[in-house]
Design a protein that fits this description.
The protein is α+β, with helices and mostly antiparallel strands. The chain has 5 domains: 45-142, Phage tail protein beta-alpha-beta fold; 144-218; 239-333, 3-Layer(bab) Sandwich (Phage tail protein beta-alpha-beta fold), CATH 3.55.50.30; 338-463 and 548-558, no CATH class; 466-538, 2-Layer Sandwich (Ribosomal Protein S8, Chain: A, domain 1). The protein is 40% helix and 21% strand. The strands form 8 sheets. Strands 9-17-19-18 form a 4-stranded antiparallel β-sheet, with helices on both faces. Strands 2-5-4 form a 3-stranded mixed β-sheet. A hairpin with a 2-residue loop joins strand 7 (186-190) and strand 8 (193-199). Helix 1 (2-14) packs parallel to helix 19 (487-501). The two termini are 51 Å apart. InterPro entries: Type_IV_pilus_biogenesis. It comes from Blastopirellula marina. Keywords: Signal. Residues 1-21 form the signal peptide. This is Secretin/TonB short N-terminal domain-containing protein.
């Protein structure tokens, strides 16, 4: 009867009962209060204040070859953050205080302005409790800083999701810099907080990604925005320049002007700096003045670049947030971009998810639909034919990886990565810009197949599946240290299951429950069967084991669809 007592206790807890009501009086009365270290609090508050000011998009600046020291003084006043220059470090790198700075832009954060303007000089900056110090890139990049990131609002009550976020960050942001791959950076979980020891550059990317994730999580399911979002500050600045090139118009004309003279003139009148990759031009034997002609009138910056480069058989591409290059070999300037794709509408097949309760209900209903559970016999009756496992992210991932440049993905040995971030229903993808365009087109095509009727049909399918009466045989595993309960004990277990699922469920004529050898045989509605299985798992009587997922080891092109019917 020892086993019976244990079973009775666990089931009582599983259905919300309380065994020892008197224990509630011995629980803590509240939270502990502390008397903080005043010095540390002051230092931290000042640093956090400076960091907030560095992130605020308040700066409008137009600097044309402004001396470095004047530029820093001006920016310091605008940002209201003390800024100093590490003069010995600059001298060691051959950089003077009069080195010219050129940058213009509106509604930029001080951090973005410093990053873009100092990059050309090989400089960077460090943030501390005294403000910002301008120093060499090598010195800044090699210095590790410890920061904490609270994920409480992002993960809610799902504490296990903090570890998932840890893995996303370590796998997708500066992967080689973390200790598991031989780097110096570390990332650990404490409650709902990440403790990260990393360089300033990596911290900047983490901050940007988590802020973006918090914003995306709040997206309404009404008019849900599905355009991909740059997931790094660097890539966002690059995209902003691409957009500006399209919209900026200038009055210009050239008549057989030498290419270099034309670019020098253009650099005076548009929101970026264009340079010429002379080495690549020499490699294809393009020498001499290289005359270009452009008819009089107003032209967009994009059309000007297109006309100039096409006439010479060249290409142009944006290489940072403030510059572009003309080259014969654009491939060497191509870098992966980090983008976030909102896919809530796709992974939930159009169902309008409005709260965590609805999300958890759908996950519970479709949990056993995945292909990995095919081999578990007693789950087959719980699996509804044609019903997808929700969220259906694995099918979507496989569709993308098998359709769009399959050999470019990490699963087949390529450099590009794809991760599904469940808390915000997004795909996080690192790929080349032109590949991102192909992914966006594919997602658009998939969305064309979805209509309001798609969701309505799925809801009806779920309801019909819940209503269906099915038979399941659950093989029970008794604890080796105790004997199987006698007949009275088994009957008590039956009563616990009946009460735990609701007595009214057992009043329908088709319903039955009984023991047969070492198994429990149940005939019930499919939704009730799922409740029973959950109780048996909590009682440690049933142990479903998923088949190892081998889809990542096999070629993506051979993938045949997701659990319970695939993606559309």
């Amino acid at each position: 009867m020892q086993k019976l007592a244990m079973l009775t206790s666990v089931v009582a807890f599983a259905i919300g009962g309380t065994l020892f009501a008197d224990d509630a009086t011995s629980l803590p009365s509240g939270a502990i209060t502390i008397q903080p270290d005043a010095h540390q609090r002051e230092q931290l508050e000042q640093l956090q204040q400076f960091q907030q000011r560095m992130e605020a998009k308040t700066i409008t600046i137009d600097a044309d070859r402004m001396p470095l020291y004047q530029f820093i003084e001006k920016l310091s006043k605008q940002a209201d953050v003390p800024m100093t220059i590490d003069r010995p470090e600059l001298q060691n790198n051959g950089i003077t205080l009069n080195s010219p700075i050129s940058i213009n832009g509106e509604n930029l954060s001080p951090r973005t302005v410093l990053t873009l303007s100092l990059n050309r000089l090989g400089l960077s900056f460090q943030e501390n409790g005294n403000g910002v110090t301008i120093t060499s890139r090598d010195k800044s990049d090699s210095r590790l800083q410890t920061k904490t990131y609270s994920l409480a609002e992002l993960v809610g009550n799902h504490t296990e999701s903090v570890t998932a976020w840890r893995n996303v960050i370590a796998n997708e942001i500066a992967r080689d810099s973390w200790e598991q791959l031989g780097g110096l950076g570390t990332i650990y979980v404490f409650d709902k907080t990440l403790i990260v020891n990393q360089t300033k550059a990596v911290h900047t990317e983490i901050t940007y990604l988590l802020n973006l994730a918090a914003r995306v999580k709040q997206f309404s399911s009404d008019d849900y925005p599905v355009t991909s979002l740059m997931a790094s500050e660097r890539d966002e600045a690059t995209q902003q320049l691409r957009d500006k090139i399209v919209t900026t118009e200038i009055e210009v004309t050239f008549e057989e002007a030498p290419l270099r003279d034309a670019i020098r003139e253009l650099n005076k009148s548009w929101p970026m700096k264009v340079r010429i990759d002379e080495r690549s031009l020499s490699a294809v034997d393009l020498k001499g003045p290289l005359p270009v002609t452009l008819s009089a009138g107003r032209h967009s910056a994009k059309s000007v670049l297109n006309e100039i480069t096409t006439s010479l058989g060249l290409k142009w591409c944006v290489i940072s947030g403030d510059s572009a290059v003309i080259t014969s070999d654009p491939r060497k300037y191509q870098v992966k971009e980090f983008r976030l794709y909102p896919v809530r509408d796709l992974v939930w097949h159009g169902l309008k998810i409005e709260n965590g309760s609805q999300r958890n209900t759908l996950i519970g209903i479709t949990r056993w639909q995945g292909d990995s559970w095919n081999s578990v016999d007693y789950l087959k009756s719980l699996r509804a034919p044609g019903l997808p496992q929700l969220p259906d992210n694995k099918s979507l991932e496989q569709v993308i990886q098998s359709t769009i440049r399959p050999d470019s993905w990490e699963v087949l040995g390529g450099p590009s990565t794809l991760s599904y971030v469940a808390e915000i229903d997004c795909l996080l993808i690192a790929q080349m810009p032109e590949t991102h365009d192909e992914i966006a087109r594919l997602l658009h095509l998939l969305r064309q197949q979805q209509t309001p009727e798609t969701a309505a049909k799925l809801l009806q399918q779920i309801e019909d599946s819940n209503d269906e009466i099915v038979t399941a045989r659950y093989p029970l595993s008794w604890n080796t240290t105790t004997s199987q309960p006698d007949e009275a004990g088994l009957n008590t277990i039956l009563e616990l299951i009946r009460s735990g699922t609701g007595e009214t469920q057992w009043q329908i004529p088709e319903a039955s429950i009984s023991f047969a050898h070492d198994s429990l045989v149940v005939r019930q509605r499919r939704d009730v069967q799922r409740q029973i299985l959950t109780m048996l798992i909590k009682l440690d009587l049933v142990h479903p084991v998923a088949k190892t997922d081998s889809s990542k080891a096999s070629p993506a092109a051979n993938y045949s669809g997701g659990g319970g019917g695939g993606f559309f």
